[in-house]
Amino acid sequence: MSVVKDTLYVDIEENTERVEGDKKPIFVGVRNEKNPKVKKGVKIGDDWYSVAVFQGKDFETGDPIPGRLTIKLEKNKPMQQGQSQGGYQQRSYGNNNFQKKQNYGNFR
């Protein structure tokens, strides 16, 4: 059962990677203290969404409108089984399948 709250709070910070004139968002989700490479999103029901805030534009002309912002919430894709966050593959120390060299005696 998923529960959706009536009020959602989204923490955002200025995008320090953005250069004036590029298409990157002005604001993004705040960085996770435990893993600074990951930005925090917002959970709606059972799903997580990434947050990006862009300069608002006129839909007909595409011209930027001062003081207007467009907020994009993009649903995060579920990770596949065996996939870890950030593309880091965790090592298996227990049941590894490394081929063991056979011992044929002492070679000198």
Can you tell me about this structure?
It is built from no helices and five strands. The chain is extended and about 75 Å long. It has a domain of 65 residues. Strands 1, 2, 3, 4 and 5 form a five-stranded antiparallel sheet that branches. The mean pLDDT is 78. It has 108 residues and is mainly β.
Output the number of helix runs.
0
Strand content: 25-35%
Which percent bin holds the helix content? under 10%
Instruction: Give the number of DSSP strands.
Output: 5
pLDDT below 50 for ≥5 consecutive residues: which ranges?
none
Average pLDDT metric: 78
Overall 3D geometry? extended
Distance between the termini: 68 Å
Global structural class: mainly beta
- N to C succession of SSEs: EEEEE
How does the major sheet shape up? 5 strands, antiparallel
Radius of gyration: 23 Å
Descriptive keywords:
mainly beta, single chain, 0% helix, extended, five-stranded antiparallel β-sheet, 108 residues
Helices and strands, with pairings:
Blueprint lengths: L11 E3 L12 E3 L12 E3 L2 E11 L6 E12 L33
Antiparallel strand pairs: 1-2, 2-4, 3-4, 4-5
